[in-house]
Design goal:
4 copies of one chain form a homotetramer. Chain A is an alpha+beta fold. Helices cover about 45% and strands about 15% of the residues of chain A. Chain A contains 17 helices and 14 strands. In chain A, the strands form 4 sheets. Chain A has a 6-stranded mixed sheet, with no helix packed on it. In chain A, strands 5-8-9-12 form a 4-stranded mixed sheet. In chain A, strands 3-4 form a two-stranded antiparallel sheet. In chain A, β1 and β2 form a beta hairpin. The N and C termini of chain A lie far apart (about 60 Å). Chains A and D meet through α4, α7, α8, α9 and α14 of A and α4, α7, α8, α9 and α14 of D.
């Protein structure tokens, strides 16, 4: 595998230019994704994951010592060696959420690597396969080159009441269509792929429990993101077209954004050395479950970080509006903080309660990481509601930046949209646009819908909570105290 | 006053062309607002208020008999003569919310007319003025020509901790800058003006309690919407630019939208015959309060109607996804309905409990209409959250309509984004885009932020609830039962 | 049937003495229920339903003109003749909740009478039976004598996953064990019977849908409450034993309480003239449904009335504690009122939207009455939580009234438990005990658990909401706006 | 100081007999508190804190190595030496909540000891006093004898709008009335004293911020619980009288209960060696704040433990009722678990994020411990509401145990109150009574009101959240992203 030298955010951006990806957007093939105005802000977000690793202030959080090589690596490529690693991950994600205000897209890859480290080990132990060794080789490559990996789990799923092998179209879950001497050929699609177009590598995993009849769908592997046969179709986001206007204020958060795309696997060849599962259907669920546990933990960090930005914006706009000392405003800010810190507390708790798996990799407490994510499906919505309450209606009735800069009309906006006399009207407009961004614009996808569905929809966590809780023990406790059973 | 013949929605649209309005949008003056792709869908929504009045099926809801002329008028120009009128208003608004899925913009005018009918009567009775008579003449004009009135109440407010006369810039609340023999000259702005650009008339009212020192700000009047000195600056909405693309599916709701604009009053002359308040500061609050009571009732109708659309969309997408029978999906649908009907129940109750004012106009129960609106500041948010839960992440990761229609790429979307095999992929995309529209796109302004701030932000209702509830009586009840006081 | 003259609350109490009921309580047969200290407060509550009918101030709410005789009757025995009757019912119940602070037990009978008037009419119309005529005769007797009727619907139900005829013990739903020429013999039990021991009459109804195989369980009739074979076993309530202490303050609400009992039907004979259903299983559900609709409406009145008492108590204790002006306290009071009025608004709305049934009786809007009750399963809990927040911990750590009155110890309590210096310590204790009564003592059964389960548990309303909502229409609305279907 | 040998729960109970306490209850002096049926169950709960320390299974949680002596001590007397100690505390409390289903009363003392270890150290460092040394001597005594300490913080507070020195009665906050050579004399009262009557020692602390004028109120000390001048007045609890009946089932939890009492300090002398603060008003707040932080952490353990019991009871009664597989029941159980584990997660997080204070004692993360407690003021209420929903109305309409055991009547209860045929009716009654106990009976004080007000009422946490959150940083994050400020 080639050595790619990436150290800084800028080097990361340059590294992306070398890929030959097939990216489609707004009905056209994108020749240069890196400089496309719709795409670039999402690349900027990923770049911050490199920059913090170079900042001595953040070194402890943003880097780690590889257990394979003993060298310092970006934490996003690290395998957790203890509960402190798990805790630091949450803190790193909160920091990055604070710095970007969006989804910075690199957790899915990190969580995929860690999950594969656990499950390939287990597979080898139980089945005598050699997946773990292959995986470790791959991990060295990723760590050594500090690559961004897209963790591709979610299949389109078609009719959700049917299993993979029962679908009218057998490709609605990604599957092996051919096994060859030198590798496998896969067909299908992965949807909602966070940061897909910004990745060097794609790590594919199955998306659900598989039975024997779904054997061909139990497949995991890693390939370069510009492998022949891969097609990326860019997902549109709320207000995405504003990036094509020649504006800055109206974007709310001009530097950063998130990204999702669907990836089509049009009969893609994968050599055996990159295959981590190929038919071992009984390990599909453990891989999904382990990945999900890690990824549900992630939300306790990143969403709390974006929450910090939104809270800061709400306090600032309250000051600009002259109402920051009103008791009901202060109370709403407290409530926003309470909810945001509850999310973070859950993220910390599942990390601190993590434990060592047979592979040596530390795994979060599964019950608590599900609790964490489940709160994330609720609290950001209430935080947004409160932010919108505080912001006032101007957030959505504000005329455009172009009007504001228009020589004839701008003066009226400047005069009449002024709040606190000490604050320039432009600052007020900027803050309102940031709140709009997170609550219903470009950032809302990441802060709300991703909070809802990322790492599994709410019902997925409810199923896990039901499974992980020890109900029999609780029944015994009750029966003992009620005098029905002896201790 | 000229006779304008408007009967149908189409005639309404045509009537708008005759105005000479100064409208700014995206940094440019709009020559023809009626056919501007950003504006037109919002005009279409208003047009439905005419069309239902011509549909025999809806005659009972959509029209009424004028108490002035005995002739049939559009209910939006009617003065409520009994509690049944109040109830029918709520039902009409629910119907229009269902038919358009957005804010159809005509309630503010209706609520302004009814509030002025009460308060000008009171003013004359207490102060010996002649406002009521002027108002009745104006009302005949509006009813006879079936005009759309923009109810302009909200001032920019500047620093909200300061009163109108205390602001650094005295124009931050609209005010009389000159009293002349033939009328008054006013300066200022009104913001968040729903349907402003789609109106024939602008009815200005003060936005808060006024004291003696705020006398010049206690002003109410009506003028044609193209009066010299009026400037409209169009408010941008989430995803507004999609209307400029050559697309339909991606709009979610291609026919209809809402509209808000800020209106600048650049020293506008108003003849006395159109002035309904000019300095009577002690009546500023009664006018605000009466208008707010009517307008908080309105939300019990229109938002329940949009809620119906969103519930319908959620059920449909669940069917398309193959999960409509899952118990947790059904339970969420029940919850959405429960919340939506609670809103409606509150709207009905404040109407049924309405009572006659001295002017003869029926007014809603003020406490219950505040209860109604206060629930509207909460429940639509939860309904949206549940809809987003049911819809799944595809709602925000869906590639563009242009990709879907692209000969090369569209086939992949068609193949992989199919849900239930009996449903065309396009139908699924359309339904997802409708949900996106209401939850974070063009319609979200109306369904969420307007629910929050329209007719007063949540704290405004809390203040009214505190005032309207008879706490002394409740204390007596408690003291009696506790044995502290005799009955 | 004998003529019983009851006009006043006192006469009502005296009328109860004439019955020969078999009542069991705390392991003993109660010889004189009327004067038993556990029972009497619940009788006092019912007595208020008579007293308000004699108070000219409340005449309009508490009485009505019988549509049978044209005479004035207590509204609790009246058949609703229009929507105003339905609205007045809700207002009467709120008044009585305010006056007693508990469940006054007489609504179940009223709702049973109204439900039977609708359903017996329907049965006769469809089956050619004569139940309606029988029922009307019975109604005249009840109205003429102003009787209290216990509406007995809820069967013990045994294993809830099994139908009546599938239970291990066939008596777990009340059933006809013998049909005779002169009447029927029934066996079984009815549980959670509100006010059973305080009633003159028992009106039995089935509790659920019945199928053909459950025919014997489809039975409705009315009998005097001291009929041979009836056994009453008194339900205990939280803190019931305090009534046996010689105390007043510690009761919180010394005058009034609610009552529930289980009734055993130990092979009871019912003459045909009192039978309103005997095997017509297809009408079991309509009867349950109609009764439930009325009874779910009731909660929009009575619980709002008790809510008023609790709000009054919370404000008063805040004043006694010296914190009534704190913004967070005021905000919590507003929230309590908001929730309480939402309940009431729902009660009013289902009444105002009521409609005439074929029998002439007016029925509430079924969907909205379910919405009403469903909110009642939630909001009183939050109102209690807020009251407990405001009250402070003393509410549950307060030493006993006997300590307070003890010459040696009382002085310490008097000194140290004083709040605002102008308020006697005893008043503070009394108010805390009233809040304890409603939130976890004698009144909590009525205000909380009855709010949860009375007139059907939450899931019962959810099932009805799912059924009553027109989902197909909502789907059409969405499909039209999404461009999938034409209007 | 005398050596008291306590090892087992039984020895603890015996140790209490030696005290000469003045305890009042129901208007009488209690001669033998240990065997009083009202008091004994609360003693049994404390005894479990000894028994678990002797159980090898729990040794790691229930004991620790004293940093003073190197000997094994009961964790309730231990000073936290690292974050693992903090985490183990939470786990121990959860275990004890599970085993007793009530408040076991010993945390307040533990939290007082730890808070004093931090603050006396700080005082000495800043003021040159010798409090820390005194405290360490005292701690050795407590550890060596394994004593139960009552942490007495809450003053009666009188009019809460006034400071201690402003009250009409100067004794409404406990104060020094005399400084002597050998010690101080104090007067006042402490209310809501958890486990007061079951303690060997009373540790007094101030309850709020003090200013210079409140100097005499800034006092902390420890004295034996039977010191001359101390008077205990026992707080009554919901359903307390049932303990005086000769019943078991009706108690719900016959073995265990909580306890609160008010303590009167009738001019009590305290020797200097036991005084830890006497006038250093600027350290009143640090002591309150440190204690509160520890105590708010505690609730993340104990209440989750009681929650486990209630969840177990809810699942069990659902099984007994035959509805355990109904999807809505399962969903409610999941929700109960979700809320309960969120509480626990917050308890764990503030422990894992704890840090070393200058004294060497580890302190929890103050923000997160406030987040923890604030969730506890909400979630147990919702857990109770769901448990009551699942339990059904029988929980509050159930006749008495004496009726159930009555030869004549019991057979009817046995027959008609049977649920699942495989479960004895008595088991069903027992489980319902356990749920009643926790939700509105003896245990409700501990699970609900204590969750609300213990360790500070909700508003106290909101104030702390406002203080502890770094709002300025959040504002900077927002201003940077909005383009208003550079990083």
């Amino acid at each position: 595998m080639p050595k790619i030298t990436i150290k800084t955010g800028n080097e990361y951006v340059e590294s992306l230019r070398k890929r030959k990806m097939k990216v489609h957007l707004f009905g056209e093939k994108v020749k240069n994704p890196v400089d496309h105005p719709i795409i670039r802000p999402s690349i900027n977000s990923v770049a911050v994951t490199y920059d913090v690793a170079n900042d001595p202030k953040y070194e402890d959080l943003a880097t780690a010592i590889s257990h394979l090589t003993g060298e310092k690596v970006n934490r996003f490529t690290h395998i957790h060696q203890n509960t402190q690693d798990l805790v630091k991950k949450v803190k790193l994600l909160r920091l990055l959420g604070q710095k970007t205000g969006v989804c910075f897209q690199r957790c899915v890859g990190m969580d995929s690597l860690n999950a594969l480290s656990c499950v390939t080990f287990e597979m080898d132990r139980k089945l005598g396969t050699e997946y773990y060794e292959r995986f470790i080789e791959y991990l060295k490559y990723v760590q050594g080159n500090d690559l961004v990996c897209c963790g591709a789990m979610t299949d389109p799923k078609g009719d959700r009441s049917l299993r993979p092998s029962e679908q009218a179209d057998p490709d609605l879950y990604l599957r092996i269509v051919e096994q060859r001497d030198d590798g496998i050929v896969v067909r299908g699609s992965k949807v909602h792929q966070t940061g897909a177009v910004n990745s060097h590598e794609v790590i594919v995993m199955p998306t659900r429990t598989m039975r024997k009849e779904d054997k061909d769908y139990a497949v995991s592997f890693a390939i370069p993101s510009d492998t022949e046969g891969l097609i990326y179709i860019y997902g549109r986001q709320s207000c995405d077209l504003r990036k094509l206007e020649d504006v800055e204020i109206d974007l709310g958060n001009a530097r950063y954004s998130g990204q999702e795309a669907m990836i089509v696997f049009d009969d893609v060849f994968v050599p055996w050395k990159s295959v981590f599962m190929a038919g071992e259907y009984e390990f599909a669920w453990p891989l999904v479950n382990t990945f999900s546990a890690y990824h549900r933990q992630s939300y306790g960090g990143c969403k709390a970080g974006v929450g910090d930005v939104l809270i800061g914006a709400a306090v600032t706009i309250a000051e600009y509006n002259g109402v920051a000392r009103a008791s009901h405003i202060r109370d709403k800010i407290v409530e926003m903080n309470h909810l945001n810190e509850t999310i973070y507390a859950c993220g910390i708790s599942c990390s601190a309660e993590g434990c060592k798996t047979p592979s040596g990799t530390y795994l979060v407490d599964i019950l608590l990481s599900n609790i964490c994510k489940h709160n994330v499906t609720r609290f950001p919505y209430e935080i947004v509601r409160l932010a919108e309450d505080i912001a006032g209606a101007l957030m959505v009735t504000l005329p455009s930046e172009k009007d504001f800069k228009n020589p004839e009309i701008g003066k009226y906006m400047d005069k009449y949209l002024k709040g606190d006399k000490a604050v320039p009207t432009e600052s007020r407009l900027r803050m309102l646009r940031l709140i709009e961004n997170i609550s219903m614009g470009l950032g809302a996808v990441g802060y709300q819908i991703e909070s809802m569905h990322g790492a599994g929809s709410p019902q997925a966590q409810r199923i896990m909570i039901e499974r992980e809780v020890n109900i029999e023990r609780k029944k015994k406790l009750a029966k003992f105290l009620a005098g029905i059973e002896k201790e």
